Amino acid sequence: MIREIQKSELADLLALYEHLHATDDPVPGADQVDEVWQSIQGNPDIKYFGAYESETLVATCTLTVIPNLTKGCRSYGLVENVVTAPAFRRRGFGKAILEHALEYAWSRNCYKVMLLTGRKNEETYRFYESAGFDRHAKQAFVAKPKEPEQDTGCDS
């Protein structure tokens, strides 16, 4: 079963996110996490979809629908944070959740949906292609803020 993740399922989502990256920034305090989750839940353009096996959240992805002034004012979508629990991989949950996100985006009249991956292996690329994404359609560029310089305590 695939559906939108409910407000009460935040702990399940955060547990699943532990499988997203080998290392990640620490999770802030519960108050800040709850505030962000409430903001997400209140925004109709952000959808957190979950795939469930016997009521257990086993895979997820986030789809953000972004309003746009080009392409006849048709929105576009951005998929992020695609993850399946290790015990449930290679069973179709990831592909099904991405197909669900795409169907939702098309129902919202999006003219395209983009997805970025930090993985650098052919298996991952083929997986995303099998779900309907084209790795050759565009070139992605990512900018991140510069890290503050460390004070060495020495004068130059």
Structure description:
With 156 residues, this protein is an alpha+beta fold. It has one domain: Gcn5-related N-acetyltransferase (GNAT) (Aminopeptidase). The protein contains four helices and five strands, in the order βααβββαβα. The protein has helices at residues 10-17, 30-41, 93-107, 122-130; strands at 2-4, 46-53, 56-66, 76-84, 113-115. β4, α3 and β5 form a beta-alpha-beta unit.
Structural key phrases:
5-stranded mixed β-sheet; 4 helices; alpha+beta; 156 residues; single chain; 5 strands; Aminopeptidase; 22% strand; 28% helix
CATH-defined topology: Aminopeptidase
Fraction of residues in helix: 25-40%
Q: Could you give me the name of the CATH homologous superfamily?
A: Gcn5-related N-acetyltransferase (GNAT)
User: How many helices?
Assistant: 4
CATH architecture: 3-Layer(aba) Sandwich
Q: Could you write a compact summary of the structure shown?
A:
This protein has 156 residues and is α+β, with helices and mostly antiparallel strands. The chain has 4 helices and 5 strands.
SSE arrangement:
Elements: E1 2-4, H1 10-17, H2 30-41, E2 46-53, E3 56-66, E4 76-84, H3 93-107, E5 113-115, H4 122-130
Parallel strand pairs: 4-5
Antiparallel strand pairs: 1-2, 2-3, 3-4
